[in-house]
Each structure stands twice: as C-alpha cells, then as structure tokens.
C-alpha cells in the first residue's frame, strides 16, 4: 500500500462533491429551485453554488418557505445575502396557506414547521419546479441516514423509503415525470462539524443569533424557549404562561428554524473558531438539543418526510 | 485556516449479516471514536431496556427506519460518519443477505475498502464467498477480513489462524489475489471492543494493527497509481448576456475530474467529435489553478472556440480513446421488474446518456457458488455478463482500470427508475 498522490483534504473533497451534485441538478433538471432559509447549511450551499456556477448566474432561483415565526435577524440576513449575490429570491408563506385554508392549525401557538410541507408543495405546483435543492444532512437524524442524494417524491410530495432509486457511484438519476419531484441534497455527506469548518475556512457571514448573546428564556417541557420574541408584524410570541419564570441567559442557536420549536443552547462562543471547538466537545446532537418537534417519537422525522417534509 | 484539521477522507463498507455483529461493529466504532452523543445514547439505552436487554445494544444506533425497527432488520444502505481528528470516514452499511445483493453492490460502488465480517464460531461461509466476490466485482482494492466474536471462542489463536488460511485459499480461487487486492486479517470482538479502537488485553498473541490503525493508513481512492485524464463535461457556462463585456466570450466547461491530472497548456481532445485544443485556464471558484487532479470539480477554459456540451468528454490528446457503440459488461439487476431483452433502456455513463438494447446475455453468475449459468432472463439481484448495442457513442475505459469511466447505470424510461448497474469488461 504505497501512496503516490496526495488525496484531497476532507473539506475539499466534500466541497467538490457538492459542486458536482449542484451541476448535475443544473444539467439534468429543467426547472430547479434552491431552498434558502438564511440558516447555516443553506448559506454553505450558496457558497457552493457560487463555486459551481460563477461567473454565470445561478441556473435556479432561491426560495424560502417562511413559517411567519422566523427571527427577524435571520430574515434580514436572508434578504441581504440574496441581494449581494444578485440572485432572485422567492418567498412563500405558511400564513398565506393558512389564509387559503390549506393549512389549519390545531391551536394558534402550534409549531408550524410541519406545515411548511403544504406551502412548499403549493409553491412547487405554482412554479412547476422539478427539483428542490436543500441543505439536509444524513448525520442529522436516523431517518436521514438512508436518504438518497437525489431523493424521489411522488405527485403528492411523498417520500416512500421503500421506493427510492438505487444510487451507485456518482451516477445520480434526477429524472422525473411531470408533477413528480426530486429533492437534491448536495451536503448529504457533511456533518455539523464539517459545516462549521467550512464556514470558518470560507469566512462565511452568518445571522447574529448563531453567536453567543443574552436572551430572555423560559423553561418549558425541559427545554429552553426564547421568551417574548417580536415578529415583523408587531406580534410578540412565546410569551410566558402563568407561573413560568423568565431568566436571562447567555445562549446561541445551533440550528435556526421556527421560533416556537427551535431552542437555543447555553454558550459563550461568540465567533466561528469557538463554535468549532464547542461542536467538537458537545455531548448533545444538533437536533437533540434544539429541535423540539423531533422528540415526540423515535420515528417523527420519518413520518414528516413521508408527508412531504424536507 | 481551520481550528481543527482533518487530512483526508476514506469511504468504506461493512459486509456481514446481523448475526456477524456488523451493526455492533459500526456502533462500537462510532461509540469508541466518541461520535455518539449523550442524547442518542439515552435514546438507544431506553429502547434496549424496553426490549428487555441488560446492556446497551450498540447495534440500535444503525437501525434507521420505522419499518426496519419493527422487523429488526436492515433493508437499505445507510451512511454513517465519524472522524478521528486526522481522517473523516463515510461508512456504507449494507445488509448482507443474499436477497440484498443489489444493496451490497450499491454500497460497494463508492467504497475504497471493505470490512468482511466472519463469525469466529462459524468460519468462512457461503455468505463470506458472496461478499468477497461482490467486493472483487465492484473493484474495492482494500479488504479487511475481520474475524469477529473472538470472545466466544476464548480468544483462541488456533481458531483465528485456521479461518485466515481457509479464506486465503478461497481468495486465490476467486482471483482476489491475482488482481492485487490488498487483503488483511484481524481478530476482534466488536461487543467488547477488542482490536477496534483499543487493543485491550485478551489477544496478546496478535501484534498486528488494530482496525482503526488499518483504517487510518488505508490509501484514499485514486492515490495509488497514475491514471489517465478523464473530464466528463457536466455543464457549460456561457454568461454572454452579462453586463461585463469581458464575459461575452466566456465559455467554461464545468465538471469533476474523474481521474488523472491536467495542467494549463496541456493538449486536449474533446470526444466524441475529436476537436483538438489546449487548456487556457483552470478555475475553481474565484481561484485560478495551474493544475488540477482527480476528484476536483473545476471549470476548464480552452484556447479555441469549440462547440461542446454536457455529455462530451475532455481527455488529454496523448491519452486518446476511441468512442464505442457496443459494450460488454457485468450487470447487477436492481429492479423488481426483470430485464426485458425486447425493450430499449437508457444507459447513463458519466454525464452522458444513450439508448441501449441488450445484445447477448453470455451467462449469469451464482453469487454463492460463483458458477456460470446459461440464462435468458435477469431478475432482481442477479449478476450477468451482457453486451449492449448503443444509439450514441460512449467514451469508456474498462472498469478494472477506471471505476468512473467503466461504470454505468441502466434507467427504465417508463418509470425513470434506476434498474441496473453495469461494470464494463
């Protein structure tokens, strides 16, 4: 076993693979879209898309499915980044689906993450997208470990784990019939650590809530909930219920999603290097620490994916 | 700059059945390299207790889907990740049963090393032969034969030595050695952790490397021999509508270097048309490179204006190949719908597609006995030697020489499903 050539570093390898996948989407699909939330994973994908397609324009628009419960800092960052890149940003809102009556909440403060699926499917139909590029990673959750790079969804956006196309070598099959859809995941093989190392290496900007800051917190169901968060429409959500105490803590977010179901972690990491070290030494998984909606049962992610969730 | 650094990446697969302790092996690797975090451990220890087990069942870490958990089996390829600080690993975890040959082939397609598990109590079995043959067929250069469950044979060296000798005899028989596969042996107990990450004290007679030492030293793909330059064009960048007048004539050929190296100034040929030019520039993002090599995704600019599109291949003029319209390959059938010799399929090879019809099926290989059998049909999990006639020329190498330009998939146009995987002879 003699080595004659220097292999790529793991970050270079992952970057090259992701660029390849993005270009396959562009080469095989006629009307793809890149889902962009302003979160760290999708910010990595934007950088990868720059490396894949510049000096040309991206061969797809960006789209955000807004639950209406997003942090204003993240939305501002989303808009700013899209403007800097000079790429088209489409925003579709769960609240519009609620107005249309296609999303019905059981209670007003119900987490809206799972309802994003409905709005996403409506947007896919509206624009006729044949492929949605997303930032999901296989290390995030058990049900994702078997996810394909190019994942096939039927006309109802459903993921059937037993009816996925075999994926061999790097010969991805993104073909679909009209109405069907491919979900493409260029950073499938990345871990949370890889994402942070890439952000550090590429010197990527991030919304401020990823870094340590002081915030009012209420403890609810054993998890930390950000308290009294103002929304763009003037509404304030996550107000403490009777008997709940508000405590000011030093926290940051490991993942950014719907305010009602994304919990921060205690942290004094105020720059990317410190976050890399914190990620290396943490004892809790990204979703375990921060995603309240995955904890209902061992199979909850699988269930949501079958219904068309990302 | 990076706060923490990983040198390289290794993709490997594990072959074995539930009974061989494969899930336990993976669970142990993840656990001992501290990849398993507290909340996941709590979750699986709760599940272990619910099922009435005394110790935490590390194999639960790798059961993903609800359907599988209910049946207690693994039915699809799962990918797992861990890192040692010096190397990142991607494990392809495939079920080992005969009816899952297609999953093994899928997992093997991206692996550079295979761990073949043998239960020390049972020795070399039919499934060991099957796993080894498939690893060989799919061209995995490094094979680690892991004799597991040594704790159940009192860590007896004689048992281990006999299994190694049996395996070598059969490896010679199927040509593993002739084709220069690197075969190594290791005794272990995945359950206890002997010889995985820690040596422990139960087998002082074994002085070779632990499993993790073998993995750390195993060469990454494409590093062991020089290869011809193959650059399938994925996408052509022509931003002529741009505001920037300098970009009006920009024509970038985007793709991933599947093998070999390229340097600015190299004479190249674009196939299948055979146009000749020279490399004017190599770009990766905003960086201008002087040269680039295997597995890098880059943009090539050529000196001459050549009409080139997705599916073409750029090669070095000095390493010319002839496009072909007929190929001979070993095919693993992946679909529940059998192969139909009357139908036309689509073959996707690199970034290129061609319609294809079956020419002749020479024989089918019994993956257990390795016997060749005459056949006229091909069902799921069958492997056969087949020739195809192509509508479009393909730029191929033999799979043995090049795993990227020697491989293809077969697509059923009516369903768009991937129904077969081919390795060109």
Give a structural overview.
The complex is a heterodimer of chains A (310) and B (425). Chain A has 310 residues and is α/β, with parallel strands linked by helices. In chain A, helix 1 (10-28) crosses helix 2 (40-53). Chain A has helices at residues 10-28, 40-53, 72-85, 94-100, 116-127, 192-202, 272-281, 286-290, 300-306, and strands at 32-35, 62-66, 89-93, 131-133, 150-153, 181-184, 213-220, 223-226, 229-230, 236-237, 246-252, 265-266. In chain A, strand 1, helix 2 (40-53) and strand 2 form a beta-alpha-beta unit. Mean pLDDT of chain A is 87; it is low at 293-299. Chain B has 3 domains: 8-217, Rossmann fold (3-Layer(aba) Sandwich); 230-319, Elongation Factor Tu (Ef-tu), domain 3, CATH 2.40.30.10; 324-424, Beta Barrel (Elongation Factor Tu (Ef-tu), domain 3), CATH 2.40.30. Chain B has helices spanning 22-32, 38-50, 66-71, 101-109, 126-137, 157-174, 211-217, and strands spanning 8-15, 78-83, 87-93, 113-119, 142-148, 182-187, 230-232, 235-237, 252-256, 261-263, 267-271, 275-284, 287-289, 291-293, 297-302, 313-316, 324-333, 344-349, 352-365, 372-373, 383-394, 407-411, 418-424. Chain B has 425 residues and is α+β, with helices and mostly antiparallel strands. In chain B, a hairpin with a 6-residue loop joins strand 19 and strand 20. The radius of gyration of chain B is 24 Å and the shape is globular. In chain B, the strands form 4 sheets. In chain B, strands 7, 8, 9, 11, 12, 13, 15 and 16 form an 8-stranded antiparallel β-sheet that branches. A 6-stranded mixed β-sheet of chain B has the order 2-3-1-4-5-6, sandwiched between helices.
- Which CATH architecture of the largest domain in chain A would you pick? 3-Layer(aba) Sandwich
Report the sheet with the most strands of chain A, covering strand number, pairing sense and barrel closure. Answer: 6 strands, mixed
Q: Number of helical segments of chain B?
A: 7
**Strand elements of chain B, count:** 23
Percent helix of chain B: 10-25%
Query: Could you say how many structural domains of chain A there are in total?
Result: 2
How big is the Rg of chain B? 24 Å
Range of helix content of chain A: 25-40%
The CATH H-level homologous superfamily of the largest domain in chain A: HUPs
* Most extensive chain interface and residues per partner: A-B, 74 and 88 residues
């Amino acid at each position: 076993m003699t080595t004659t050539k220097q292999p790529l570093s793991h970050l270079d390898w992952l970057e090259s693979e992701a660029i390849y996948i993005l270009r396959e989407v562009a080469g095989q699909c006629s009307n793809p879209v890149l889902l962009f939330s302003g979160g760290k994973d999708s910010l990595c994908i934007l950088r990868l898309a720059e490396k894949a397609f510049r000096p040309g324009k991206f061969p797809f628009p960006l789209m955000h499915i807004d639950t209406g419960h997003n942090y204003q800092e993240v939305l501002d960052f989303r808009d700013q980044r899209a403007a800097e890149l000079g790429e088209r940003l489409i925003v579709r809102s769960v609240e519009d689906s609620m107005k249309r009556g296609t999303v019905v909440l059981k209670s007003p403060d119900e987490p809206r993450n799972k309802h994003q699926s409905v709005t996403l499917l409506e947007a896919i139909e509206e624009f006729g997208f044949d492929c949605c590029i997303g930032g999901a990673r296989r290390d995030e959750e058990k049900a994702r470990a078997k996810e394909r790079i190019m994942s096939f969804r039927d006309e109802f956006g459903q993921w059937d784990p037993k009816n996925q196309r075999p994926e061999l070598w790097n010969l991805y099959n993104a073909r679909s019939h009209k109405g069907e859809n491919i979900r493409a995941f260029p950073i499938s093989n990345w871990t949370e650590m890889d994402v942070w190392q890439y952000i550090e290496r590429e010197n990527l900007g991030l919304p401020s809530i990823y870094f340590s800051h002081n915030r009012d917190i209420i403890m609810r169901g054993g998890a930390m909930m950000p308290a009294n968060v103002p929304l763009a429409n003037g509404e304030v959500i996550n107000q403490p219920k009777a008997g709940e105490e508000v405590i000011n803590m030093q926290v940051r977010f490991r993942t950014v999603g719907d305010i009602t179901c994304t919990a921060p972690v205690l942290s004094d990491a105020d720059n990317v290097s410190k976050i890399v070290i914190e990620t290396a030494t943490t004892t809790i998984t990204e979703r375990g620490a921060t995603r309240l909606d995955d904890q209902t049962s061992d199979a909850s992610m699988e269930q949501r994916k079958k219904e068309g969730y990302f | 700059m990076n706060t923490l650094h990983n040198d390289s990446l290794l993709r490997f697969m594990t072959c074995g059945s539930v009974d061989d302790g494969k899930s336990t092996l993976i669970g142990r690797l993840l656990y001992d390299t501290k990849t398993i975090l507290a909340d996941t451990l709590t979750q699986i220890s709760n599940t272990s207790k619910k099922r009435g087990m005394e110790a935490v069942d590390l194999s639960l870490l790798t059961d993903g889907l609800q359907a599988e958990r209910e049946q207690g089996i693994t039915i699809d390829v799962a990918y797992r990740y861990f890192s040692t600080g010096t190397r990142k690993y991607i494990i392809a975890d495939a079920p080992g049963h005969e009816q899952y040959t297609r999953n093994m082939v899928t997992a093997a397609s991206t692996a550079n090393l295979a761990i073949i598990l043998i239960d020390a109590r049972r020795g070399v079995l039919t499934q060991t032969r099957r796993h080894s043959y498939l690893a060989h067929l799919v061209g995995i250069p490094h094979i680690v034969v892991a004799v597991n469950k040594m704790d159940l044979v009192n860590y007896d060296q004689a048992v281990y030595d006999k299994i190694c000798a049996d395996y070598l005899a059969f490896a010679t028989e199927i040509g593993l050695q002739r084709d220069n596969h690197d075969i190594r042996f290791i005794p272990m107990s995945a359950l206890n952790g002997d010889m995985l990450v820690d040596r422990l004290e139960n087998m002082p007679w074994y002085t070779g490397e632990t499993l993790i030492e073998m993995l750390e030293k195993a060469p990454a793909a494409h590093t062991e021999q020089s290869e011809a330059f193959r650059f399938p064009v994925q996408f052509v960048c022509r931003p002529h509508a741009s505001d920037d007048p300098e970009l009006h004539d920009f024509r970038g050929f985007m793709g991933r270097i599947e093998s070999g190296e390229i340097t600015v100034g190299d004479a190249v040929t674009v196939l299948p048309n055979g146009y000749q030019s020279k490399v004017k520039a190599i770009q990766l993002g905003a960086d201008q490179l002087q040269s680039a090599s295997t597995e890098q995704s880059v943009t090539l600019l050529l000196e001459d204006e050549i009409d080139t599109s997705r599916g073409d291949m750029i090669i070095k003029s000095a390493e010319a190949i002839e496009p072909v319209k007929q190929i001979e390959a070993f095919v693993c059938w992946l679909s529940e719908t059998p192969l139909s010799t009357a139908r036309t399929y689509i073959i996707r090879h690199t970034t290129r597609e061609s319609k294809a019809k079956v020419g002749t099926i020479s024989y089918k290989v019994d993956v257990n006995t390795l016997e060749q059998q005459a056949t006229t049909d091909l069902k799921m999990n069958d492997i056969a030697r087949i020739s195809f006639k192509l509508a479009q020329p393909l730029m191929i190498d033999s799979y043995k020489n090049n795993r990227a330009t020697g491989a293809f998939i077969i697509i059923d146009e009516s369903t768009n499903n991937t129904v077969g995987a081919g390795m060109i002879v």
